[in-house]
Design brief:
The protein is an all-alpha fold. The chain is built from six helices and no strands. The chain has a single domain, classed as Ferritin, CATH 1.20.1260.
Length: 149
């Protein structure tokens, strides 16, 4: 089981890195500056927060694996893949509306995982995704202003 947990942890880091590929090339653009909500944290906050969140997620996923609950294992894996999908739509495709749908799915699956596992280590992730959902929503309004310029 330990080897499996290390493998999944490394795959999660890989997924995070792959998601950041979409982010890096589009975060310093006029488009992003125009749609970025005023309450968006500074850029240096994101890698710090995501590092902490991924460490917590590793422990949550280990508990899920130990529980042998196949539904939760699948849901957790889908949730991680949805994170990459959100980054792809938001930063690469610049489709803020589709990314909002994806982040709502992330939030729903996260709440289900939190409810089913009752693992308090998952709560910071749910709170961060909630905040990110709100930022995504605000960027839709800013996008409409940006496209009307």
């Amino acid at each position: 089981m330990w080897v499996w947990w290390v493998f999944i942890s490394l795959k999660s880091c890989d997924r995070n890195f792959n998601g950041s590929i979409f982010t890096r090339k589009n975060i310093n653009t006029k488009w992003y500056d125009c749609i970025k909500p005023i309450i968006t944290p500074p850029k240096y906050i994101f890698p710090i927060v995501w590092t902490i969140l991924y460490i917590l997620l590793f422990f949550v996923f280990k508990n899920i694996l130990d529980s042998k609950n196949k539904l939760l294992i699948i849901l957790f894996s889908i949730n991680l893949l949805q994170n990459i999908l959100w980054t792809y739509f938001y930063f690469s495709k610049k489709d803020v509306k589709k990314s909002f749908i994806v982040i709502l799915l992330i939030l729903i699956s996260s709440i289900i995982i939190l409810y089913k596992t009752k693992n308090k280590l998952y709560l910071p992730y749910v709170l961060w995704i909630s905040f990110a959902s709100y930022l995504n929503y605000l960027s839709i309004d800013k996008l409409d202003l940006y496209t009307n310029i």
